[in-house]
Specification:
CATH topology: Penicillin binding protein transpeptidase fold
CATH superfamily: Biosynthetic peptidoglycan transglycosylase-like
Helix content: 40-55%
CATH class: Mainly Alpha
Largest sheet: 2 strands, antiparallel
Distance between the termini: 15 Å
Number of helices: 4
Radius of gyration: 15 Å
Number of strands: 2
Length: 116
């Protein structure tokens, strides 16, 4: 079950599995659409191990300069972990917890990139 949010408010819940009649497996999605999504969201998805240090560092610098969470540095894996396992609160402790779970999933190879 995935909850869709708009302006920090839940607006819909979607069943994400083969039991959902609208579910489309990765193999049936156009490679052009997949590549466009990867290019937009996480161009190094198939090569990194969960997070990109440079993107995270740049986001941290921007956020400290603006004194608020102005920029994200999340990879697709980080977004998945946030949406499946954690709350939506933007705190440093939640981000650290997210990174630990991401590191575990990616480095222990608990889930393939295509499954994500």
């Amino acid at each position: 079950m995935h909850t869709v949010y708009e302006n920090e408010q839940p607006v819909d819940q979607i069943f994400v599995s083969y039991s959902n009649p609208n579910f489309v497996p990765l193999q049936k999605i156009s490679p052009y659409l997949r590549n466009a999504l990867l290019c937009t969201e996480d161009g190094a998805f198939y090569w990194h191990r969960g997070f990109i240090q440079e993107a995270f560092k740049n986001a941290l610098i921007q956020n400290l300069k603006r004194k608020r969470f102005a920029r994200g540095g999340s990879t697709i894996t980080m977004q998945l972990v946030k949406n499946l396992y954690l709350n939506r609160h933007k705190t440093i402790s939640r981000k650290l917890e997210e990174m630990l779970i991401v590191w575990t999933i990616e480095n222990m190879r608990l889930c393939s990139k295509d499954r994500m």
